[in-house]
Amino acid sequence: MEAPRQAPSTGKFELGRFLVSAVSIIAFATPASEGASDSRPLVMDQVVVSETKTHTLFMGADISVGLDRQLYAVNDVSGSSWVIVVNGKARVVSAKSGTIDLKISPSLKLTDLSATLAGLDAKPAYSAKNDPSTRLTKAMANAADVNAGYQASVSQSQASLVQAQNNAQYIANTNNRDAPAIAAAGGFPMVMSPAFGPLNANVMTGIRTTDLDQVTVSAGSEIEMNGGAAASPGYDAMEVTFVASSEHRLNNPYVVTISQLHEKGTKPGLVRKLVFAKALHPIDSNPTTVHFFEEGFPPAFELQSFEVHLYDRGVEIATNVSSKRVELTRDEAFEYVMVEYIGAHKGETLPALPAMGSLPADLPALLAEGKYGATYYVKVSKDGLARGIFLDPGCSEKTGDPYLESAVKNIRFKPGLDKGRPVDGIAPLKLGQLTI
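Predicted structure:
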């Protein structure tokens, strides 16, 4: 099984040059009989030969973490933290402990593994602390506490009003009963209320009931003011949803998103890049829904672009949303590998090596039984094709094993190089170490 490859920066590969179209084969033509008065056009039968697309060439992203003035390739993701290997040991680097130096390099990659991210939906959203509904709920809770105090004041005022009205009625009744004496005396006397002491009837009958209305309005005004405070300054997060599946099981997948955005209040055209990572559960052929939020975006940001990259154990997997994705046949993919390999090793002398191919499905079981564990030697042409498999480095003794001969025919090799020029060579082959 072949792992995705990063195209060396020295290579100058042109996509159009190696995308071989389906071959049209001209079949038969039947001429008109001699002497015929009318001349009929030749009838051409066209047969289209199409090969299965086994590989994907796409623009991926190589991500490295800067630590102690050195760059380390990301090997995995734990939660939302990066995992790198330093001196042979895994090390977790988290953004929670401070700013992380990241290097992201666009890179053409070739793989025979792919996954589908169906229904990808990435849109600006609110963080939990900035969500207007959350802020409004808190504001209403605060208003409820304030209103509880207001309600106590209202209850007290109502009790006072009832008492005052009773006292006023008592005074009025007393005045009516003693009206002749009051008139003779020339005025209203002061009377004693059991609860409030001396009260004047004119004062009590003029008590303002609007005080209660003012208390009620104050409670409502507080909610309104808190409602204003609950208004959010703008989106400050991203909400991402998709359904993931893959015919080849991914045991340690993680997703990396790259957002380019314009921050509110900055100069037009000024773009900022934010990178987030999230570990996922294993992905297989059964569709699995993935939903998560990314926080830490500047309020009211304007999203310019959004990329999603899927990895498994540090190796990027092609998806249906990969940038500049091109489907290739095995031969087209190998031609790409050859061009990149030769371009990256100009002037060098190197032995032939296995490059890509497909191994028999039952090989792991046979290896577990102790079979085919030896090192074999394959004659490799300058075109990277196997010309025979042998038991010795001098290629004098053939294996005589049809299983091995069949297996090696499905493997393509990087040819030997003599000062950068492809030549015939011999490649050592240990089947148990192949991951192609």
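Summary: The radius of gyration is 41 Å.
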